[in-house]
Every structure is written in structure tokens, then in C-alpha cells.
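Protein modeling request. Please complete all fields; requests missing the sequence field cannot be processed.
Requester role: graduate student
Desired output: 3D structure, C-alpha cell encoding
Chains: 1
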Amino acid sequence: MKIFSGKKFEVYLEKVKLPNGYERELEYVKHRGSVVIIPRVDNNTIILIKQFRPVIGKWIYELPAGTVEEGEDPLTTARRELLEEVGFEARRITELIGFYASPGITTEYMRLYLAEELKYVGAKPEPYEIIEPFKVNISEAINMIKEKKIEDAKTIIGILTLKTLLDL
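Delivered output (168 residues):
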């Protein structure tokens, strides 16, 4: 049973039967999915954003990201969010991995993209987005994770995936 419908997601309350036969009531958020983008300026530099998140009431460091619109291809979402949040178009965008954001409470599946061969054309953030993009060396981004300056899970996954897959 749908108990809430919003712009980005719906909340459901359902009785489900588990593989072991146990039945339980389940509350979950049905989400269209989202994308995370690693804008790679050169071999050692990426773009992060400092963004105010009203849900937690503070500024955090993140990779650009956004929700897939109804009927939108995730690659199109990645290109749109890259432009909106940091002002770049990418000549090449590659999907690296996909993962569930928090499978205990939401169906949200996030796709991680690497954006390369960037061209700056000007940021176009939504009016409700308070974003400050900045360039950072990948080693410094790793240190920001170690120092607990980066607390956002999708960003931690993105940076560590980039380092691991590209052996940086």
C-alpha cells in the first residue's frame, strides 16, 4: 500500500513473505534510481562539490549526483547533473559500477560514472541547490576520507572505486 507519493520517491507499507516463510510488515522507499559522477579533470584531479544538505543541516563534500527523471536514461541524467552542478560537459562518460544506496529501506540503485575530457560551459544549479564546486587531487580526496571530512557514502564509494579500478 502506497502511503506517500513525492516528486522523487514513494513510500510503501506492505506485508511480505520471506524465503524462509516468515511474514513481516515492510516499510520502504521506492526510488527511480540515481547517478553519481566523477568529473576527472586529469589523471590526478577530480571535481567535488561542497553542498548544503538541509536534511542533515550541514555542508558536506560530495561528488555530483542526481535522481533519474521519469523515463530518463541514466546516462542522460549523468550528463544533465554534470552540467547543472559543476558546469561541465564531458566528451566521454563511462559507467564504472552500480550499487544499492541502502537496500534495507530503499530500492534506490545508484550508477557511478566517470566523466572525462571535460569542457566548462557554466553551472546551472537548481534554485534549491547550494553548491560550491572545487578541484581536488585524488590523494587529497583520499585523505579527506581518512580525516572524516568526506562523510557521504556515494562519494566515498566513488573515490575509492576510482582509485581501485584505475590503480591510482
